[in-house]
Write a structure and sequence with these properties.
Blueprint lengths: L4 H13 L10 H5 L6 E4 L6 E4 L10 E3 L3 H8 L12 H8 L5 E3 L2 E2 L3 E4 L2 E4 L2 E4 L2 E4 L2 E4 L2 E4 L2 E4 L2 E4 L2 E10 L2 E10 L2 E10 L2 E10 L2 E4 L2 E2 L2 H22 L5 H5 L6
Parallel strand pairs: 3-4, 5-7, 6-8, 7-9, 8-10, 9-11, 10-12, 11-13, 12-14, 14-15, 15-16, 16-17, 17-18
Antiparallel strand pairs: 1-2, 18-19
């Protein structure tokens, strides 16, 4: 049996945080705090709640789920205009506008095991996320392309095993990072490129084993990292929240 999204979360926590911290759904508020939100619209056909990735619709807009497409096609199949109804643009619009519906919860391509998400293409095992292309094991994330095992991530590409990272590219095994590219094993970092094994590090290129911007011997670095991750896991378990890199940067209003 393959992994479900909760199994993937626990595996990611072991890899990134050094241990599990509990069930994925108990961290929903924490993981969605700084990602693009999913909006809810009501189906005009079935009445159920539908996820939508953008809010920019007119107040009178009507929605259907992707699964209701056939029912919609049947509903409008007999709608035809006569000559009196096409005498001018206003007449045409007044006749056809009631039959316009927007499609929500769009899941297309080679996608499966997708729940409460919208605009998902060629992706597998996705939960409460939006605008995900070719992703695997993605939850509470947005604007992600070619990513795997990401949780609470916003604006990401070709990354793997991330928790609460923002504006990323080709990152691996990272936690609470911002504008960190082609880097691995980083925690609480910003504006890094080509770095690895960094804690609370900013504005660096091609460095490793840094705490702040101070380089340490690998053994000393790993000891400090182990202690930090123990503190982070403890706080997350007790509070279901912890300090964000965006809090540190003073930009917590938006990722």
């Amino acid at each position: 049996m393959g992994l479900d999204i909760n199994d993937a979360w626990k595996a990611t926590c072991r890899i990134v945080l050094g241990g599990e911290i509990g069930e994925l759904k108990t961290y929903e508020a924490y993981l969605t705090q700084y990602v693009e939100p999913i909006f809810s619209k009501k189906s005009a056909l079935g009445g159920q709640s539908l996820p939508v990735s953008v809010p920019y619709f007119c107040p009178a807009a009507k929605f259907i789920s992707l699964a209701e497409q056939d029912a919609y096609n049947k509903k409008i199949s007999d709608v035809k205009l006569n000559l009196n109804q096409i005498k001018d643009i206003e007449s045409i619009l007044s006749e056809i506008s009631p039959h316009f519906f927007y499609a929500a919860d769009q899941v297309t391509g080679n996608s499966f095991d997708v729940a409460e998400s919208d605009n998902i293409i060629d992706s597998q095992v996705v939960y409460k996320s939006q605008q995900v292309w070719s992703g695997k094991f993605v939850a509470y994330s947005s604007l992600a392309r070619l990513d795997e095992y990401i949780f609470g991530v916003n604006w990401s590409g070709e990354a793997k095993y991330l928790i609460r990272c923002f504006q990323t590219y080709r990152q691996q095994r990272c936690f609470e990072t911002n504008i960190t590219f082609e880097s691995s094993d980083c925690h609480y970092t910003s504006n890094l490129w080509g770095c690895s094994d960094c804690l609370f590090t900013f504005n660096q290129r091609n460095r490793r084993h840094l705490i702040g911007n101070l380089a340490l011997e690998p053994s000393k670095y790993l000891a400090v990292k182990k202690s930090l991750l123990e503190q982070v896991r403890s706080e997350l378990k007790s509070k279901k929240n912890t300090l964000s890199i965006l809090d540190i940067l003073g930009g917590a209003d938006a990722p």
